[in-house]
Amino acid sequence: MLPQPEQRRDADTVAGRLRSRIRVGVAALVALLLATAVIALQPGELDNRLREADALKSSNYARFAAMLGEMDAADQPLSPAQRQYLNYLKAWERGYAGDYEAAIPLYKSVIAESDDSVLQFRATASLVSNLTIARRYLEAYTYLDLLVERMPQTTDLLAREQGLHAAALLNNQAGQYELGLDFSTRLLHERMGLRGECIARELRVESLYKSKRLEPDGEDVSFAIEACQRHGEAVFASIVRSFQAHAFIDKARYREARDVLESNYEEVQKTRYLRIISEFDVLLAESYWQLGDLPRARNYALRAIDKRLPKEVTDSLVAAYRLLYRISLQQNDTKSALAYHEKYAEADKQNFDDISARSLAYQMARHQATATKLQIEALNKQNQVLQLEQQLGAKAVETSRLYIALLIAVLLMLVLWAFYTKRRQLYFRRLSQRDGLTQIANRPHFLEASARALDECRRAGGEAAVILFDLDHFKVINDRHGHAAGDHVLRKVTAACRTYLRPEQYFGRIGGEEFAILLIGYDEARAVALAEQLRRAVTAANADGAFGEFSVSASFGVTSTRKAGHELRQLLACADAALYQAKLDGRDRVATFDGSPATVAATPLHAQRDRLLGSVTPLS
Ligand SMILES: Nc1nc2c(ncn2[C@@H]2O[C@H](COP(=O)(O)OP(=O)(O)OP(=O)(O)O)[C@@H](O)[C@H]2O)c(=O)[nH]1
User: Fold this and answer.
1) What residue stretches are annotated with the GGDEF domain (predicted)?
2) Confidence band for 32, pLDDT divided at 50, 70 and 90
């Protein structure tokens, strides 16, 4: 409950007008003085003054209002934080003055624009109270939810005090007394020994009274009054006393109720808080009615109606009209009784509507909060599903990447394996085609490759020649100088001959110490010239005597396709016939095939040749 200033009515009299003029003059003078004082106000000082005004706003309203006037009148630039703080205090002042329609938007602007979470929280708490008094209950309970939600994060003690106060107050008003008691107990624990203790105890007394558990002369009441007096909170002390008086009346202890009210009547007047003043009046009226003092009862009931806030229907107003109706009835004033009854019925209906509206708003706010919570939960679930989907997507991408990496690795291995296999194949093929000792083509490869080349040559209508040569008396070299020396001679001779041959010319070892050369595109004369060169190269193979004191020579047989045709076997046979002739003629020479098939036919086979020629010629 926010305190309200007393509404004064100036009588339309000369005296009234005179008082007005004096008041205007004094106000102008004060404003001038304040403006002068404020112009000199420093920014740090302004912060201090804002805090000072804030601290005494409920204990010394007049001073607070004056300070606010000073700060507002000052034409001083304010920081955004100072502007919001001042707006908050202005809203509070408007609410205190009962101008809720001005206070509410100011509070909302502070909540929306301030960067200070504590100030936002305090503005929310005050807004909740103002909305309640303005009967905008649904909004009030909606902001209350916001307040309760932010409570755990709010550590500022003053702000928490306001928040817990608003929460306890609104729950009491919605008939949620257990919740009201809970919030007021929390406030009491947090603010024991401070101003908040008074507010907490007052709210506790209210919850207990409304749930019909208040003992009017119990500790709850006495402790609450003591705490509020200790902190100079006359308004709250008076509210506690009003509940105490209610409880006394409920227990038919009318004298005690009257005594409490009368002995504190002056103090409550000083608060200028119309709600509680009116409450005291109606409770006194009730007490005197019950004690049989009708004039006093009537007097207080009328005062209660007179002091009420304009347009506001309260329990006190309803009770005052009801009492006046009953007094009039007892005094047999039927006309007044009827008039008061009408007012009583109207006020009672309005009050009942107001209570129902509060209760309905509370339920609607609960409903809205539950719906919002469910919506948030649904959104959270949706969010979780989306996150899971994203994670699954990421996993799928990761898995695909792994598969791709694995595939690439397998492909690379296959390529490497194919490459390696191919290389091994080529290596083994080359190995199978080469003569191990001399590294030139072996007999099968020479025969196969030469046959193919000759075939192509024949198809192309080209000419070719064959040179066949055999080392002379090689057996003697082996016998006298050893097989290793023979091997060396074979390698040396081969290497020497290769220097005269081009890579595309076919050179093969077709027997132990017998070699053949196919020369595509050569006629016999060119082949003979080459054979001569080779013969000299063979002779020079051991000229330096590297393998011992012996000479090396070879006999050469040459023929060409013109004489022997393109068939390899025939060419070799003809070249062999020429070679045999060279051996017969004394070795170390080049002989050509004479072109006669009879010569070929007369040439003995190798084995016979060995027997025929082996012993004939000695080694030089
Ligand atoms: N060191 C060595 N000797 C071989 C190799 N292949 C064959 N021979 C030898 O070559 C010799 C060939 O001898 P023969 O056929 O009688 O011919 P030759 O002694 O050269 O006499 P002519 O051909 O008549 O001049 C044999 O003693 C074989 O053992 C080989 O790879 N290395």
Assistant:
1) 462-595
2) very low
Which ligand 1 atom is the nearest neighbour of the CA of 470?
Answer: 23
Instruction: Identify whether 117 is part of a domain.
Output: no
Backbone angles phi, psi at 42, to 5 degrees: -85, 155
257-294 pLDDT per residue, tens: 999 999 999 999 988 888 899 999 999 999 999 999 99
CA of 555 to the centre of ligand 1 (A): 13
Average pLDDT of the residues in 126-130: 90
What is the predicted ipTM? 0.96
Pick 221 or 271 by higher pLDDT.
Answer: 221
pTM of this structure: 0.47
Q: How many domains does the chain have?
A: 1
- What's the rounded mean pLDDT across residues 525-550? 88
Q: Does the beta carbon of 614 lie inside 6 Å of ligand 1?
A: yes
Cα–Cα separations (whole angstroms), residue 541 to 458, 472, 493, 501, 517? 35, 13, 6, 16, 19
Two structure tokens written together for 224: 């609450």
Residues ≥6 apart with Cβ < 8 Å to 417: none
DSSP state, residue 540: G
What CATH number is associated with residue 536? 3.30.70.270
Instruction: Give the distance (Å) from ligand 1 centre to CA of residue 577.
Output: 19
Instruction: Note down the domain range covering 462.
Output: 443-614
Which residue type does 95 have? G
